[in-house]
Amino acid sequence: MSFILGITGGIATGKSTVVDLFKKYNFPVIDADIVAREIVEPGKPALKKIVSNFGEDILLTDGSLNRRRLGQIIFAEPKKRQRLDQLLAPFLQDAIISQIDTATNDSSLVIADIPLLFEAGYEKVVDQVAVVYIPENLQVERLMKRENLTEKEARQKIASQFSIEKKKSRADIIFDNQKEYSSICQKVTSWLKANKFL
Questions:
Q1: Which segments are annotated as binding site for ATP?
Q2: Residues 6, 97: Cα–Cα separation, whole Å
Q3: Which EC class heads this enzyme's classification (predicted)?
Q4: Are 5 and 168 in contact (CB under 8 A)?
Q5: 16 pLDDT exceeds 90?
Q6: Measured distance CA(88)–CA(65) in Å, rounded
Q7: CB of 32 within 8 A of CB of 112?
Q8: What average pLDDT does the structure give for the chain?
Q9: Bind-site residues
Q10: N or C: lower Cβ tally within 10 Å for the chain?
Q11: Confidence category of residue 191, pLDDT binned at 50, 70, 90
Q12: What is the rounded radius of gyration, in angstroms, for the C-alpha atoms of the chain?
């Protein structure tokens, strides 16, 4: 039986860095963001569902999703954004679980990279949850630097997600990412060795 490790974090906490370390060791990674793009490809049932709710004008001439147009609609009205999330949730969950099932045939450890893991209730489909953690003030600092934002803009972006402290309190494993890259590399490697995956 494969062990399924869900990995989440907050914006600018370094989740991608940690996921990339698992990839370096050749463990399969199910990336929820990629799955979310795949389920709305032309001809897929999820895309038909979006069109039936939001109309044909969210499609490009080739029949693919006009992400920009849909983005304009849902960001202008939070209720529509909620509606979209609710529509896509079952398709996304089915696709993520199916990809996890396929990956478990080939590996002792499968990584599920899910940004909204707690928000969408995915802790039920993984064996343990690892949170990539840095304190909020450092999160603000890194986000300002990375995206060239003011402190106010950075704090607003961070406030739109579950707080990192809340995620930390619900984690089975915490990968503290406050120090340099070599430190997080060592933490991931130590965890893999301690759990006999290496």
A1: 12-17
A2: 12
A3: transferase
A4: no
A5: yes
A6: 14
A7: yes
A8: 95
A9: 12-17
A10: N
A11: very high
A12: 18
What is the fold of 1-28+108-192? Answer: Rossmann fold (3.40.50)
CA angle 154–22–106, rounded 5-degree value: 135
What six digits make up the tokens of 99? Answer: 């990809």
Express each pLDDT in 34-66 by its tens digit: 999 999 999 999 999 999 999 999 999 999 999
Q: What is the pLDDT of residue 43?
A: 94
* Distance (Å, whole) CA 93 – CA 161: 20
Q: Dump pLDDT digits (tens) for 101-156.
A: 999 988 999 999 999 999 999 999 999 999 999 999 999 999 999 999 999 999 99
Which CATH entry fits the domain spanning 33-105: 3.30.70.2120, 3.40.50.300, 1.10.10.10, 1.10.260.40? 3.40.50.300
193 burial class (0-12, 13-18, 19+ CB within 10 angstroms)? exposed
Residue 170 has pLDDT above 90, yes or no: yes
Reduced to 3 states, what is the DSSP secondary structure of residue 139?
Answer: helix
pLDDT tens-place string over residues 69-112: 998 998 888 899 899 999 999 999 999 999 999 999 889 999 99
